[in-house]
Each structure stands twice: as structure tokens, then as C-alpha cells.
Design brief:
Blueprint (H helix, E strand, L loop, with lengths): L6 H14 L2 E7 L9 E5 L4 E7 L6 H17 L7 E9 H10 L2 H7 L1 E6 L5 E4 L1 H8 L1
Helix pairs in contact: 2-3, 4-5
Length: 138
């Protein structure tokens, strides 16, 4: 039986990716039962923030789809309007990320500044922008 990627693993992989890619100031990480986003981080050089909702892998295929839909609802309800520029992300295991890339309208991702972070079993993270989502959907 394959080992499932839990939410903690996904979150840690994304945090490492963020630090390597210029995002590391004011890092706030929520625990499993905390309210609010799972990861909030400021860019090292600009007044821009990433708010990311993460999910782990499910035991059955339907759970992976539910993880995508549930995380999308959570991040949308946490969207802010302010002086700083906010980017939003869904941090998902690779299997759920593939569902998100297929189902999330690229136009919505563009308008909402929403990115998909895909985490594989080795902890490698791939970020998908609206442009990437558009390519997959065409």
C-alpha cells in the first residue's frame, strides 16, 4: 500500500519552495485545527503576500477531488482587499493538483491571482499560474 502525502508534508514542502523563491518574511503557519489560511508569507523584497491553503492526499479517489473543492472554498472565503498585493494558492498533492488544473477555470485563476502548488511524493513542488492552467485546458 502506498504512503499517502499528509497535509503536514505538503505544507513543509511548499514552505521550503517559498523560501528558495524569494518568499520568507513574516511567515505564519497554521496548524491543522487553526482558523485562517495554512501559510501566510510576505515576499522578501516587495509588499506582496501569499496566502496558501493546503490539503493532504485522500485514501480514495473521490477524497482527492473533495480536497481540491474544499480548499478552493476555503481560500476564496479568506480573500482580502488591502494596500498590499495578495496572491493566493492551493497547496495540493500531485493527484489533487491535476484535478484542480483540469477543473479550475483559468480565467478565474487569473482574476483571483490564484496559483496551484503541486507536491509530489519526493517533496518536489511545482507552481502553476493561470497561464499554465490555460495551456493544460486548451
Amino acid at each position: 500500500m502506498k504512503k499517502l502525502l499528509n497535509e503536514k508534508f505538503v505544507k513543509q514542502a511548499i514552505i521550503r519552495w517559498l523560501f528558495r523563491n524569494g518568499w520568507g518574511r513574516n511567515l505564519e503557519v497554521g496548524e491543522l485545527r487553526d482558523r485562517g489560511v495554512d501559510i501566510k508569507v510576505r515576499h522578501n523584497n516587495y509588499a506582496r503576500y501569499f496566502l496558501i491553503e493546503t490539503k493532504g492526499e485522500g485514501k480514495i479517489r473521490q477524497a482527492d477531488e473533495v480536497a481540491f473543492v474544499y480548499s478552493l472554498g476555503q481560500i476564496i472565503t479568506r480573500m482580502k482587499v488591502g494596500r498590499a498585493r495578495y496572491y493566493y494558492g492551493l497547496g495540493l498533492p500531485e493527484v489533487s493538483a491535476k484535478i484542480a488544473i483540469r477543473r479550475l477555470p483559468w480565467q478565474a485563476a487569473k482574476k483571483l491571482l490564484l496559483y496551484i502548488f503541486s507536491v509530489d511524493k519526493n517533496g518536489k513542488v511545482r507552481q502553476y499560474s493561470w497561464q499554465d492552467i490555460k495551456k493544460f485546458q486548451n
